[in-house]
Write a structure and sequence with these properties.
There is one protein chain. The protein has 136 residues and is α+β, with helices and mostly antiparallel strands. Helix content is 22%, strand content 41%. The chain has one domain: Bacterial Protein-export protein SecB (Roll), CATH 3.10.420.10. The radius of gyration is 17 Å and the shape is elongated. The relative contact order is 0.25.
Length: 136
């Protein structure tokens, strides 16, 4: 019987929030979004890795700022060809985590009494640059 290989989503965590809201109402298009993500492979087990997002949103004229750091933990099950593993690390895992981060940002801004901020969707398959590092 063939060994089953795949990607297992272990969990999602918000590990840092810095939220500074002034009295001004932030409207759609009146803010800038900076999205960074990196995938970190566990030093002790190369089948365990995490996808880390750091998202900074700043209102124009410093009326608002939000920084969210979120992590998704994953496990690769079985042996995979290198190209499939790279796909899991750079495309699949951020594609799984990103909607959670988007929803969190929309909810936290809505619950704070302001209009919800919806950050734009991203196509990780269209980003060919490699963002994998060894976890320290």
């Amino acid at each position: 019987m063939a060994e089953i290989a795949g990607l297992k989503f272990l969990n999602f965590e918000i590990v840092k929030i810095i939220f500074d809201r002034g009295d001004n109402v932030v409207k759609e298009g009146e803010f800038e979004v900076n999205i960074q993500h990196i995938t970190q492979i566990n030093d002790d087990n190369e089948n365990l890795f995490r996808t880390n997002f750091i998202i900074n949103i700043n209102g124009k004229e410093n009326s608002f700022s939000l920084q969210v750091q979120a992590i998704g933990n994953f496990e690769i099950l079985g042996k995979l060809p290198k190209n499939v593993k790279e796909n899991y690390l750079n495309i699949s895992s951020p594609s799984i985590i990103y909607p959670y981060v988007r929803a969190f940002i929309s909810n936290i801004t809505l619950q704070s009494g302001m209009n919800p901020i919806t950050i734009p969707p991203m196509n990780f398959a269209a980003k060919p640059e490699k963002k994998v590092q060894e976890e320290k």
